[in-house]
């Protein structure tokens, strides 16, 4: 049971078709409060998605090696039977929540994840705007490996989680039924997650389920119109800059730091952290300068 299909690769044609259909729907009818599509923005999102396909192949090599080593060291094994799959998917979604939340409040992790939030539009193409530095999440799933879940099963569940999240990147769906909104992540919840205004910052981290946010105090319902992007947008459609701009900002702050404590703060504190009494070296055009930490 360890030869699992690459559900993301198989879904790419469907992704592209749905993007085209959503784009056509905007051409036929667009509300004034919807961000819609932009040619340059969509091209950047597609370029980031295409680039991530190739870079992920490179990152998978060391990650697979680390998982395989840990799996051989643990005596535990989770049986690959039908009733274990819902539990494994639940565990993967729980680990994803903490990975996602950490990528918003630890700057060196945010440097990778900021790519996904760099668009000022919110549509299905935004779902494909993925980072090229995908080596920052694997450690959050180590508990599953140590609990005896086969690495291939962890990877497959991660693909299912990512596949689910594609459809929630849209403004064309208002609300799902109330019971669904209470349990699952939806377009409404995810619009809040991509919004840049204060009350919405760093909320709704769930992948498939939104119940984790309700349990751990990071949930916010959609009330006001969402303004997408970063608190200070980067103003570029260059895929290379989009992929690495926050790493460059971190490097500038590290060079300007006066102590090792400040250097550690620039790496491991929140994205907007600056030493007391210092002047931020990160240019105003760069993102995440004043992102708020989860309260």
UniProtKB/TrEMBL annotation:
InterPro entries: Fatty_acid_hydroxylase, Sterol_desaturase/TMEM195. The keyword Amino-acid biosynthesis does not apply. Residues 269-295 are annotated as: Disordered. It comes from the Bacteria. It is a multi-pass membrane protein. Pfam families: FA_hydroxylase. One of its GO terms (molecular function) is glyceryl-ether monooxygenase activity. One of its GO terms (cellular component) is membrane. It is found in: Endomembrane system. Keywords: Lipid metabolism, Membrane, Oxidoreductase, Transmembrane, Transmembrane helix. This is Sterol desaturase family protein. The chain crosses the membrane at residues 7-26, 46-70, 138-168. GO terms for biological process: lipid biosynthetic process; membrane lipid metabolic process. Residues 275-284 have a biased composition (Polar residues). Residues 86-218 form the Fatty acid hydroxylase domain. It comes from Micromonospora endolithica.
């Amino acid at each position: 049971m360890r030869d699992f299909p690459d559900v993301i690769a198989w879904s790419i044609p469907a992704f592209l078709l749905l993007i085209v259909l959503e784009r056509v729907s905007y051409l036929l009818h667009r509300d004034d409060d919807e961000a819609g599509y932009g040619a340059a923005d969509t091209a950047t999102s597609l370029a980031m998605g295409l680039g991530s396909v190739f870079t992920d192949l490179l990152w998978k090599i060391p990650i697979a090696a680390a998982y395989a080593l840990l799996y051989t060291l643990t005596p535990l094994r989770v049986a690959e039977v039908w009733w274990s799959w819902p539990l494994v998917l639940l565990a993967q979604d729980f680990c994803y929540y903490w990975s996602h939340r950490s990528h918003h409040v630890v700057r060196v992790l945010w440097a990778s994840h900021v790519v996904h939030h760099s668009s000022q539009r919110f549509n299905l193409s935004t779902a494909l705007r993925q980072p090229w530095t995908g080596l920052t999440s694997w450690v959050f799933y180590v508990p599953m490996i140590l609990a005896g879940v086969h690495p291939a099963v962890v990877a497959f569940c991660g693909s299912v989680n990512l596949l689910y999240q594609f459809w929630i990147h849209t403004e064309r769906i208002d609300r799902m039924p109330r019971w669904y909104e209470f349990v699952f992540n939806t377009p409404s919840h995810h619009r809040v997650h991509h919004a840049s205004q204060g009350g919405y910052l760093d909320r709704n981290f769930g992948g498939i389920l939104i119940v984790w946010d309700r349990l751990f105090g990071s949930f916010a319902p959609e009330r006001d119109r969402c303004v997408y992007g970063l608190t200070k947008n980067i103003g570029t459609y260059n895929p290379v800059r989009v992929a690495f701009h926050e790493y460059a900002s971190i490097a500038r702050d590290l060079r300007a730091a006066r102590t090792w404590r400040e250097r550690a703060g620039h790496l491991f504190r929140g994205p907007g952290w600056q030493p007391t009494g210092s002047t931020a070296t990160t240019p105003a055009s760069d993102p995440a300068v004043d992102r708020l930490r989860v309260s």
